[in-house]
Write a structure and sequence with these properties.
By secondary structure, the chain is an alpha/beta fold. Helices cover 38% and strands 16% of the residues. It is built from seven helices and seven strands, in the order H-E-H-E-H-H-E-E-E-H-H-E-E-H. The chain has a seven-stranded mixed sheet. The relative contact order is 0.19. Keywords: Angiogenesis, Developmental protein, Differentiation, Endoplasmic reticulum, Glycoprotein, Lipid metabolism, Magnesium, Membrane, Receptor, Transferase, Transmembrane, Transmembrane helix.
Amino acid sequence: RQRWRSDGRTLQKLPVHMGLVVTEEEPSYADMASLVVWCMAVGISYVSVYDHNGIFKRNNSRLMDEILKQQQELLGLDCSKYTVGFANQDKADQVLNCQSTLKVLSPEDGKADIVKAAQNFCQLVSQQQRTYTELDVNVLDNLLSSTNGFPDPDLVLKFGPVDSTLGFLPWHIRLTEIVSLPSHLNISYEDFFSALRHYAACEQRWGK
């Protein structure tokens, strides 16, 4: 427990928002819960969980139960104040306790969310509440519901053999560092922390 917290402090930089993207057909609730709890333990503030079939989102209560179980076993924290926000829902469920916020996403929170944001902007223009010249990056960011209150991901861990993020937040990952790992099944903390070390050591040129 103490090691995980100290590990986070040893890194030159830590992602503020990490995406956990599963491209495998059979997602593991236990292994994903471990990854989320490790993110909490090292001090990552925002975590997004995504699989291209939307299995985690459809069964988010099962994932939350597994996270709660592992949090109690691994971290021993009081579990009353951790804010879990689900995309496209107005209210957050108070489930766990840590200085982290989790969103469970599915493909509908990617391209479909961009289409919905564009439709909403067009409606505002038709109602003369905005003009088409006002559309810019910040306006579109504010119209997107999938990451409302979340910064863009700094780091994405992509699990599986597919060389694609399969629709994970296409608008938000233009400057994101992506680390590919063979599988999330039976993943070890050492593999997880190795990816964090890779991110901490990389030089991000922001398109320059």
